[in-house]
């Protein structure tokens, strides 16, 4: 069983009378890769700064290994940070950039605990070379930062933070400055490094793909509060509300009625599902992921609609389909031209039912993604009446 390392207890934070964190509670385990995920202004970076000691909460406690550390300065915490701007020293080579923190570090003399001494050059070299091995840059120690790629510079920044052997590494959107391909490569590299060094990584991002790729645990935040905590699989497959469903991947979110356990109603039609525990005929939000929808002949469709937009994405088509004025996104390898009438079928495990929340009605309609939205009158009211 994992050991708890950090606990945030009832944290509140405000800037200019605007509440940024609203009684936030969270615990983080040792050796866990945890991601704080959410839009700009949700409080994720503020949370990271409080953990690192760069900000002090207005109220609440930060516990590290069971000890309250609110008043402990950053340099005395067993925590290091990697920011989006790597801030490498341009006049120092890779070796000296990584070694910089070690040269500043002093430790107690075993023979005289009150006496502080510098690390020996032999130990500094040993630890720097160990880090170069971890970040796969052995042989680059004499290069200057301007002779490195963006991904290599980032790895040097990570090595500089890890060489002091912290228990926790904080990463504040460190991949934001990289191009798409390099960002994807570095997602895998970061996870490898975390597993190899065996410490806790706390990662901040607004990119749901990064969170799904790297994390053991994802914390979805909005407006200073936690909306859901879970594994990537749980967050994607079992979102708690419309905000989470929309923020993690693409989602069609439709008003429904939970007729009874394992049976939900949409558009006047009843659909078998795997959800239960709701009240009889309780209004609900229904989440259907675009990849869980099958296009079928009209006569076989549980619902029928009109294609209003098609975008080729390489391995798939993104198809916008109008169902009585509400636009759905379908991701499929089957091409359907604009204007085509299609049927769709959804298996029970492709339907996820959620309770209504303050986010209900705010997400899930893809009208704004349809190029034909202003040109087509979904319309033709007579045809719409036939579409069920």
Write the SSE topology.
Layout: E1 4-15, E2 18-29, E3 33-37, H1 44-52, E4 59-64, E5 67-68, E6 79-82, H2 94-104, E7 106-109, E8 112-118, H3 121-134, H4 150-162, E9 168-172, H5 180-197, E10 200-205, H6 208-214, E11 217-222, E12 225-230, H7 232-237, H8 242-247, E13 252-260, E14 263-266, E15 269-272, E16 282-288, E17 293-296, E18 303-312, E19 317-323, E20 326-332, E21 341-346, E22 351-355, H9 381-386
Parallel strand pairs: 3-10, 3-11, 6-9, 9-10
Antiparallel strand pairs: 1-2, 1-4, 4-5, 7-8, 11-12, 13-14, 13-16, 14-15, 16-22, 17-21, 18-19, 18-21, 19-20
Helix pairs in contact: 2-3, 2-4, 3-4
Describe the structure.
35% of the residues are buried. Helix 2 (94-104) crosses helix 3 (121-134), helix 2 (94-104) packs parallel to helix 4 and helix 3 (121-134) packs across helix 4. The protein is an alpha+beta fold and 388 residues long. It has 2 domains: 4-234, Rossmann fold, CATH 3.40.50.300; 238-386, Beta Barrel (OB fold (Dihydrolipoamide Acetyltransferase, E2P)), CATH 2.40.50. Mean pLDDT is 90; it is low at 371-388. The chain has 9 helices and 22 strands. It has a 6-stranded mixed beta sheet with strand order 6-9-10-3-11-12, sandwiched between helices. Strands 15-14-13-16-22 form a 5-stranded antiparallel beta sheet. The chain has a 5-stranded antiparallel beta sheet with strand order 17-21-18-19-20, with no helix packed on it. A hairpin with a 4-residue loop joins strand 18 (303-312) and strand 19.
């Amino acid at each position: 069983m994992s050991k708890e390392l950090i606990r945030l207890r009832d944290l509140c934070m405000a800037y200019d009378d605007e509440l940024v964190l609203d009684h936030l509670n969270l615990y983080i385990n040792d050796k866990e890769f945890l991601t704080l995920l959410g839009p700009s202004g949700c409080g994720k970076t503020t949370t990271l700064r409080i953990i690192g000691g760069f900000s002090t909460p207005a109220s609440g406690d930060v516990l590290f290994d069971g000890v309250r550390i609110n008043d402990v300065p950053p340099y005395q915490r067993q925590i290091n940070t990697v920011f989006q701007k790597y801030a490498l020293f341009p006049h120092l080579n890779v070796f000296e950039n990584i070694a910089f923190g070690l040269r500043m570090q002093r430790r107690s003399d075993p023979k005289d605990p009150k006496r502080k001494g510098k690390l020996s050059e032999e130990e500094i070299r040993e630890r720097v070379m160990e880090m170069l091995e971890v970040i796969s840059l052995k042989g680059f120690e004499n290069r200057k930062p301007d002779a490195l790629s963006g991904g290599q510079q980032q790895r040097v920044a990570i090595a500089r933070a890890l060489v002091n052997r912290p228990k926790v590494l904080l990463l504040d959107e460190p991949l934001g400055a990289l191009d798409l391909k390099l960002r994807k490569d570095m997602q895998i590299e970061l996870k490898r490094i975390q597993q190899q060094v065996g410490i806790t990584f706390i990662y901040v991002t607004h990119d749901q793909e990064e969170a799904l790729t790297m994390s053991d645990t994802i914390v979805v935040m909005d407006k200073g509060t936690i909306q859901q905590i879970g594994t990537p699989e749980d967050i994607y497959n079992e979102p708690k509300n419309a905000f989470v469903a929309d923020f993690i991947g693409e989602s069609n979110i439709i008003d429904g009625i939970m007729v009874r356990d394992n049976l939900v109603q949409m558009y006047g039609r009843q659909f078998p599902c795997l959800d239960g525990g709701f009240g009889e005929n309780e209004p609900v939000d229904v989440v259907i992921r675009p990849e869980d929808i099958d296009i079928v002949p009209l006569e076989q469709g549980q619902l029928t609609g009109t294609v209003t937009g098609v975008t080729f994405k390489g391995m798939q088509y993104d198809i916008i389909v109008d169902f009585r004025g509400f636009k759905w996104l379908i991701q499929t390898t089957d091409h359907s031209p604009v204007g085509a009438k299609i049927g769709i079928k959804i298996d029970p495990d492709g339907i996820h039912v959620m309770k209504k929340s303050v986010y209900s009605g705010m997400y899930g309609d893809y009208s704004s993604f349809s190029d034909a939205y202003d040109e087509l009158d979904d319309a033709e009211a007579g045809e719409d009446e036939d579409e069920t």
